[in-house]
Amino acid sequence: MPPTAPAPAPSARAPAAEIAFDRQRSLTLPCGRAVVVVPLDGFCQNQLTPDREGRFDDPYGAMSAVLSRVVKSVDGRRPQPSHLADMVTKWPHGSRTLAFLWARTLTYGSACDVAWRCEPKAGGCGHQNRPTVELDELPVAPYDRGLLERGLEVAVRSRAGAEYVFRVRLDSGDSHARYHAALAAKEASIIDAPLAQVVLVSVNSVEAKVGSAKTSLATLLGTTPGDVLDHLRYFVRLLEPRTFLDEAHRAKWVAKANAYLREHCRLPAADVEAPAGGPTGDAEGADGPAEGGGEGGLEAFDGGGTGGADEAPEALLVPQGGVATRFQVACGKCGAASWQSVESTLDFFAPHLKDVVDD
Ligand SMILES: [Zn+2]
Predict the structure, then answer these.
(1) Using CA atoms, how far apart are residues 327 and 137, in angstroms rounded to an integer?
(2) Rounded to an integer, what is the distance from CA 151 to the centroid of its chain?
(3) How many CB atoms within 10 Å of residue 107?
(4) What is the pTM for the complete model shown?
(5) Which of 60, 70, 80, 167 has the smallest number of Cβ neighbours within 10 A?
(6) What is the Å distance from ligand 1's center to 236 Cα?
(7) Number of other residues whose CB lies within 10 A of the CB of residue 220
(8) Rounded to a whole number, what is the distance in angstroms from the first to the last CA of the chain?
(9) Ligand 1 centre distance from Cα of residue 337 (Å)
(10) Is the confidence at residue 159, as pLDDT, over 80?
(11) Distance between CA 250 and CA 238 in Å, rounded?
(12) CA distances from 351 to 54, 74, 102 (A)
């Protein structure tokens, strides 16, 4: 098939059946690119199969290899294979995930088994839940342009009184690879994945030496106090989109996250164009001037939004974009709520193993 210009892009949330096997239809990614993907083949299955010991340590490395294979056109053009491999590694995580998810859905359908145990350690009943998630129904949101292009600056004050300013970038194949390498070298631990997106910009307004995107995770860990790193891990995880059980759970989560941000982080307002998810607030208040320094940055987001008498839900103070692969679930037996992610299930990456496993 010649790589002709794709048809007008359908919604990313179109039912899979509508585009199944229509290889000319393009898909719009959260970063704005339009891509055409084809089903996963045996090469992809090989990349996505755990080793003999059952280890599947680097799913995002495998995702890069798979995307290099299944993405057939980008914005109407067919890239050279070596260039494509580089491109899909640099794409932000939500775009990579949506392209992968779509190739997987074209191949196996959109149902994904998410087995999870209602955790007794967290006060749950121990019930083994086995819900099925339809991958093509997961919400998709475009990325905030500023966050996509420049990243987001955040200032965090240590308990000892120093102010650290960081630049946080969207996660990507590159940041996953940096984290994976640091983990393999025992220079980082399993809690440090969010930190691979971060570079240190300044300490007490003095430009830091740790300011390059090439800076290793180990260097960041070695130059930053633990309390500041804890705030940073929490902050980065807030950028990941989520699906909630209902509006009450969403509102509670957002209120808690915003309270945390107000207490521990300061955001230069110019970095973000609008609060995520909110039809609210940005007409009045959020565009207001952010001068004055001090704690002004955060308040500029909030503006008059929450102070008003309207019933509009509070918006999170940082933008979220991508595919909401993390979702809140209620236990089928006791009703306890918890968080699960399709990205932590083997069925998301390797549905081809289902028959083998069940025998
Ligand atoms: Zn339970």
Answers:
(1) 12
(2) 14
(3) 18
(4) 0.81
(5) 80
(6) 29
(7) 22
(8) 39
(9) 8
(10) yes
(11) 13
(12) 15, 26, 14
Q: Which two tokens stand for residue 357?
A: 């496993």
| Cα–Cα dist 122/144, whole Å | 35
d(CA 151, CA 158): 22
> Under 8 Å CB-to-CB from 82, ≥6 apart: which residues?
none
* Whole-number Å distance between alpha carbons of 163 and 145: 27
Distance 331 CA to ligand 1 centre (A): 5
Distance of CA 133 to the CA centre of its chain: 18
> What is residue 340's DSSP assignment?
E
Q: Tell me which residues have their CB within 5 A of the ion that is ligand 1.
A: 118, 124-125, 127, 331, 333-334, 336
d(CA 149, CA 172) in angstroms, rounded, equals: 13
pLDDT tens-place string over residues 174-187: 999 999 999 999 99
> In whole angstroms, how far apart are CA 81 and each of 85, 216, 242?
6, 28, 33
- CA 64 vs. chain centroid, Å, equals 16
243 Cα to the center of ligand 1, angstroms: 19
| pLDDT, tens only, 8-24 | 333 444 444 444 445 55
Q: Residue type for 297, please?
A: G
Q: Mean pLDDT, to the nearest integer, of 187-198? A: 94
Given a cut of 70, whether residue 269 has pLDDT beyond it is no
Could you give the strand order of the β-sheet that contains 326-330, starting from the edge strand earlier in sequence? 242-243, 326-330, 337-341
